[in-house]
Design brief:
The protein has 283 residues and is of the alpha/beta class. It has helices at residues 3-10, 38-43, 51-67, 85-98, 120-126, 171-182, 206-210, 215-224, and strands at residues 14-19, 72-76, 105-108, 144-146, 149-153, 167-168, 190-194, 212-213, 228-232, 239-242, 248-252, 265-271, 274-281. The termini are far apart.
């Protein structure tokens, strides 16, 4: 066997599983908590308030991705329905039950995770989600290195009434992110930004209600750094978007909470410094 053939057969491919929008509820028995408050019922409109079933869907998704050989797992926001301590605890219980090493999981919050308080995410990372803190969204510019890929998890969630579902990338966060993207020490790896909201402008007033403030700055970064890709949630469906007349570089995943008969997990492979979608499990 030639050296070239040996190299080809031993080259390792990193597989990434992308989950999103689990909307986990507090599963404590009704005798130990009041009926779901109005806010939960409002944002869950159209979805059954079945805490056990939502936890089961999330557990099934992790199990399916693990069986498919995922090396790393990304959950791109809306982990919970309204970001209460009990909901974060329920989410953490599912992760713990999945028996996947915490360093293989990256979490970012979504708008639903910030409805209850301004510091719910920070307290969750200090509490039930503490094992996953080092590989999840912390301060802007945080880097998670995993084999031949570097994740840059970004928190774009902001505290707001349940009647809004917007996100925000502040100017300071964008500047910090740009410094990371310029870092020559990261140039040999695939760079993947992970956040909840897609980096697009929404139509008319819907931008104020549901869009990402700072989207134009983020799209400019993606245009100027063609080696960077972005994973997001929020839309509850799989999408792939071309940036600057190039290839698909922005990817959205289906919502775990909407799974019916089988989990749907978006899978990617990383090779030669690039991330490519390789399909959706369960579809």
């Amino acid at each position: 066997m030639t050296m070239a053939a040996t190299t080809a057969t031993t080259q390792r491919v990193t597989r990434i599983a992308h989950l999103s929008d689990a909307h986990v509820l507090d599963h404590r028995p009704a005798s130990r908590r009041p009926r779901y408050e109005l806010g939960v019922r409002f944002v869950s409109l159209g979805r059954p308030l079945d805490a056990v079933d939502r936890a089961r869907k999330l557990a099934s998704a992790f199990a399916a991705a693990d069986r498919a050989g995922a090396d790393h797992f990304v959950v791109s926001g809306d982990l919970t329905e309204t970001g209460t301590p009990g909901q974060f605890e329920a989410f953490a219980e599912v992760l713990d039950g999945a028996r996947i090493a915490p360093h293989r999981i990256t979490l970012v919050p979504g708008n639903h995770d910030a409805y209850t308080s301004t510091d719910g995410w920070a307290r969750a990372l200090e509490g039930p989600l503490a094992p996953y803190r080092p590989t999840s969204a912390l301060a802007p510019g945080h880097v998670v290195e995993r084999d031949d890929v570097c994740f840059l998890p970004v928190d774009v969630a902001c505290h707001q009434p349940v009647t809004r579902s917007a996100g925000e990338l502040s100017m300071s966060a964008a500047e910090t992110l740009e410094r990371r993207l310029r870092d020559p020490g990261l140039s040999k790896k695939a760079l993947v930004v992970v956040q909840h909201h897609p980096p697009y402008r929404r139509f008319g007033a819907w931008q104020w209600i549901d869009g990402l403030r700072g989207w134009a700055t983020l799209m400019d970064l993606l245009a100027r750094f063609p080696h960077v890709q972005l994973l997001h949630g929020h839309l509850h469906r799989a999408v792939s978007t071309v940036v600057s007349f190039g290839k698909d570089r922005v990817f959205g995943a289906p919502a775990v909470v909407d799974d019916e008969h089988a989990p749907r997990i978006r899978m990617y492979e990383v090779q030669d410094g690039a991330l490519a979608s390789v399909g959706i499990l369960g579809v």
